[in-house]
Amino acid sequence: MPKFSVVVPIYNVEAYIKDCVESLQNQTLKEIEIILVDDGSPDNSGSIIDDYASKDERIKVIHKANGGVSAARNDGLKVATGEYVLFCDSDDMMEIDACEKLYKAGIDSDADVVIGDVYRIIDGEKKYAQFFAKPFCTDDRNILDDLVRVDFSRKYCHDAPADGPAFGYGGPWNKAVKKDLLDRTGISFDTSLKGIFDDILYTAYLYAEAKKVVYITEPVYDYRILDGSVTHSYKAAMLEINEAIFAAWDKFLKKYGYDGRFDQAYEALVIRRLKGMLGTYFFNEKNPVGLKEQKKQLKALLKSEPYLSAIKKVDPHRLINQYDLAVWMMAKAGSANGLHLVYKMFVLLKK
User: Among 63, 142, 268, 289, which residue carries the largest CB count within 10 Å?
Assistant: First the structure.
């Protein structure tokens, strides 16, 4: 049995896949299996990974019809045989000693989940992102529940460094998970969410089911920030996807008895989803609907649930950053024009 299984969902990444695969092949921990899932890539990604597999017996390749990142991760998980499982995005890389450090921390503490830090790579520049102020190892249910809250909003992270990242707390790519935990609970990625927030929901289920979680202040992952990623692309069905997200979260909250206790965290999540829709739907340049109609639809959305209640009740101190805060203020005023202006300013500041 390999000590580690690393699952990589792959779609249209021929420019980056070599860096990703070689970062896994070169791990200092050699007893790993590398599961590459070609999600119907139209480019040469499939043939590239076949070539790697022909030269390295640790590599398993799955070719499948395009079904999205969630389905690809699930298909890889089904064939994973390692003691611990980790997911790596195909345009990112693992630090050379990532598997070794995560595995040692997990085995030494008998932890169900091991969390590591990451490097953010922006325009070729590597920046260290530390998630918590200090290492921890806990089996305290209250602390594990707090980690679920952090999934909703970083502002629930009481010991996050002041300059810590506003992203990644729910990402699956810096978290090693006992395969036994996944097998016993059936935790997987929700394909109905179309690759949006499915990773955060997956992580929330991990924390809800885990008996012990360990965090190490060691960078294990290189997260490449690309303009063309799924986070920034146009989603014509974004309204329906958000409805599925809220339904999935409601189901999760009720299953573990979190409903009522997590209201403020849930409201912060709703504001995040509203913010996300400004770029992926309403004001995206690929949206075929004119600006006047976009604003009309947005104003109607602000008056619907769960947005209406979240806008009224959310604690602004729990919002992640100034962009979230500005979105909430304009939404509270019911101003689609204001939200459009906030979005344009955000785009300009990113350039």
Answer: 268
